[in-house]
Each structure stands twice: as structure tokens, then as C-alpha cells.
Amino acid sequence: MKKYFEPRFHDHLDEVSPVIWGGVPYPSGQAFHDHAPDDYKANMTEWLQGQQEEARNRVGEMLQECGCLQRFNRLAERHKEQQILPFVGAGMSKPSGFPMWGAFLCQLAQNDPDVLDKVEAAIEAGRFSDAAQIIADELNENMLAEQIENYFAGQIFEPQGPVRLIPELFKLGCITTNFDHVLEKVYEDNELNFAQVYAGSAILDAPRQAASGENVLFKIHGTATSKNGRVLTTAEYAAAYGNESTVPGTLNHLITNRSLLFMGCSLATDRTITALQDIKKINGATGLRHYAFLADPGQENRTARHEELDKAEIHPIWYPVEDHETDHDMWLEDLLFAMDGGPL
Fold first, then answer.
1. pLDDT below 70 — which residues of the chain?
2. Are residues 175 and 287 in the same domain?
3. In sequence order, which residues have a C-beta less than 8 Å from that of residue 300 and are 6 or more positions away?
């Protein structure tokens, strides 16, 4: 956690008057770091403990209000046992400059009003794969592939937001539907490079031990630099989710011993949810429970939303969102930071 929070610790120290050294003023944080490193480390450890306690208090109060405290505590227990596998969606890449799917697809269609109308209608209905299929059919499938690479294959970026906390908490692999390289970058920055990255159709070749014994990344919808096994359009979803040997089979294998934790995923109209519903029907009462950090739909909608997710054995941990630009990241950070400290 120190690497993630260190800039804030510097800001905390810099609130003190600057240190005068040889007649030259230096920011307190930098002077403390350079000239009293042992004291710096000790004070940062103490400060970090205080920050975590504050986060745990905020999360505890919030979870009490939405009735999710005991569910969060069970998740935290499972995490301490290393029995949680993070499932990372597009919302975790947004702070690093990558677009959400709806904005990306509308951008591609902006020069053709008729296509844009169709794409926007599909997105409004939650049919993102249909929107992508419209672009592939009416504009050009090769253009779609080229723009996916243009938008998501960039290697020169600085990861931002709570995605940077994921390597601190999860050291035995991740699952993502994202095409970008944000997870690869944040794990490299933490000197926890993935032992292997399985993308698209290559996930079928993943060794069994990779699911639980190694730090492996599964990009189940493919990657920006290859059309092989990419999953975005309706036709691609049909091919990838059409039988248990493809994505559903991989998911069933990965969740044999570990629960999923969805982050940055809306879990609205999602074929992954359908696959998990089918897996639940197969496994029955023997299957594991999964969890999701999700924006609170409001007290009047929680029960219906939970019943829908329960069909896939996903149990939501709600957080409030008033400002969509800030609240998602703020609460995801607090939830992960609090979970690192164990049950509340």
C-alpha cells in the first residue's frame, strides 16, 4: 500500500512549513525522505495505519446503511485465505485514460449519422455487443479491429486510480474482459509480473495449475493487438460463449476453488453473467459464492437487482454514487483498502 499512498503522505508532510537546508527551502516531505529515511518510514507506517482505520470506519458506516456489512466481512475472510480471484472490468481502466465501451463505440460511429443513431439506440438498451456488430457490419470489421488497437493497445500511459491497489491485494492472478494493458502495467510497476498472459482463444491452452498456483492473467475477451479470440460483437460473443469448451468452460475451471470479485463491471446485460448462471445450474449448491462492488441502485431497487445477480451466484456490495466522476474511484479505493485490513 505504501507505493500507492506515498504521494499523499508527501502532501501531508508538505502542509508543514518547508525545511530550510543551507539557506534553501525544501518541501518537508522530500527533506524528511532524503535526510531522515528511518524516521520517514516509521512515520509513514503510522500515518498509513491511521488512513486505513479512517477508510475502514467510512466503509463500515456505509455498509451498515446498505445492509452489506456481513457480506463484506465474509469476502474479507475469503480474501485472507487467498480464495478470491479479481474480475476487472472497464471501469477500472477509465482513470488511466481508456474509454468505456459505450463512449468508444459512439466515437467510431460519429461520422455516419444513421449508424450513430443505431449504435446509440443499442447502447441505450444495454446491447453493447449489438452496437459493436452494427459498426462491424455497416462500417467495416477491419476498421473496428484497427480502432480497437488504436484506442486500447497504447503502452505509454501512467496507470491511475484504484486499479493500482490490485497487485497489493491479489498476487495469484486476475481475470479481465478489458483489451488494454493496464493490469500488465500495474503488476510490472509492483515487480509482480504475470507468469503468463492468456488472451482470447489462448485461454483454452492454459494449464490447470495456472488457475490457482501462479500469478496469471486471463484476458477472456482477447487483447487489443489481436483479432484471435476477440469478443466484442454479437457474432464474436456467440462463438465465444456458444459451448462450454470456450469462455464458460474456462470460467467454470477458474472458479473451482476461488470466488470471483467483480470490480469496475456494471454487470447489467452481460454474457459473462449468463455463463455464470449456467454454471450455477450445473454446480447447484456445491458452487462457490461470488461478490461484486457495485454502485447502489437505491433502496427501492436493491432487492430486485440482488435477485437478478443471485441467479449467477453473485452477491453485491453496494456503494453510493452521487458524482460519477469521483465516487466510483473513491469507494473502490476505500473498499479495497478496508478489505486489506480484514473483516470489520
1. 17, 19, 21-22, 207-212, 243-245, 269-270, 284-286
2. yes
3. none
Q: What is the pLDDT of residues 125-166, one digit of tens each?
A: 889 999 999 999 998 889 999 999 999 998 889 999 999 999
CB atoms closer than 10 angstroms to residue 161: 20
Question: Rounded to whole angstroms, what are the CA distances from 270 to 101, 165, 273?
Answer: 13, 25, 5
Q: 127: domain range?
A: 101-152
Same domain, 191 and 212: yes
Q: 88: domain CATH number?
A: 3.40.50.1220
Nearest residue to 255 (alpha-carbon basis) of 229, 222, 280: 280
- Domain identity same for 171 and 123: no
Q: Which of 283, 230, 291, 236 is nearest to 260 (CA)?
A: 291
- pTM score, two decimals? 0.91
Both 249 and 330 in one domain: the answer is: yes
